[in-house]
From TrEMBL:
SUPFAM superfamilies: Phosphoglycerate mutase-like (SSF53254). One of its GO terms (molecular function) is phosphatase activity. This is Histidine phosphatase family protein. Gene3D superfamilies: Phosphoglycerate mutase-like. Residues 209-223 have a biased composition (Basic and acidic residues). Pfam families: His_Phos_1. One of its GO terms (cellular component) is cytoplasm. It comes from Clostridium porci.
Length: 223
């Protein structure tokens, strides 16, 4: 069975480099183009269920996939983006200027430091586990799951059992990552990371500097 792990389409805050977290930011015009291109890409990957974060940017993306397949999106609160507390709405540069010591400590030791008013690593890992157990218990065929950059990095690390660098996997807006699940062994294997071929066929290719150029695991997943 295959799990198609999908990040929502682009938003204005993605372009501006502002941390979104739990803020309910909708897709922008480019993000809606990406969602339509994503739906075409997923037409080659028929699924039996579509799960989504209830946040509007993820739900808009999930509906674009589900509607042509005559499926109803099932909302899972556990797939919401990580809560970044008072850092939400700000850029990394701004946070470094005003709360740099805490930010650096969080980047170095996320298990021991959380954003002010935000989630701890233990809370994130717990809800990723709950999301997977819910989905796994209902799998009847290939499924699509739409969520957010940081949550997906943690979710994939959970599925892949901490394989090297799995927590640092960064997926682009409206990209498709394929994971194969073997139910008898209850193990998962990464098949393809960050497929964007469907975006490159038309006008939905990434436009923002953040999406055109990845800089590694440092600060990009949650933008």
């Amino acid at each position: 069975m295959k799990l198609y792990i999908i990040r929502h389409g682009q938003t204005d805050w993605n372009v501006a480099g502002r941390i979104q977290g739990r803020q309910d930011i909708p897709l922008n015009a480019q993000g809606r183009l990406q969602a339509r291109a994503l739906a075409e890409g997923m037409s080659e990957r028929p699924v039996t269920a579509v799960y989504s974060s209830p946040q509007i940017r993820a739900l808009e993306t999930a509906k674009a996939i589900a509607e042509p397949l005559k499926l109803t999106v099932e909302l899972l609160p556990q797939l919401m983006e990580i809560s970044y507390g008072t850092w939400e709405g700000r850029t990394v540069q701004d946070i470094l200027a005003t709360d740099g010591e805490r930010y650096d400590a969080w980047r170095r030791h996320p298990a021991g430091v959380a954003p002010p008013g935000g989630e701890t690593l233990a809370q994130i890992d717990e809800r990723c586990g709950l999301a997977w157990e819910y989905i796994r218990s209902r799998i009847r065929g290939d499924i699509a799951m739409v969520s957010h950059g940081s949550t997906l990095a943690h979710f994939m690390a959970y599925l892949l059992k901490g394989q090297p660098d799995s927590r640092d996997m960064i997926v682009g807006n409206a990209s498709i990552t394929t994971i194969e699940y073997f139910p008898e062994e209850r193990i998962c294997r990464l098949v393809e990371l960050n497929d964007r071929r469907h975006l490159e066929r038309g006008q939905a290719a990434p436009k923002s500097p953040i999406e055109r150029k990845r800089s590694g695991p440092s600060d990009r997943a949650y933008l």
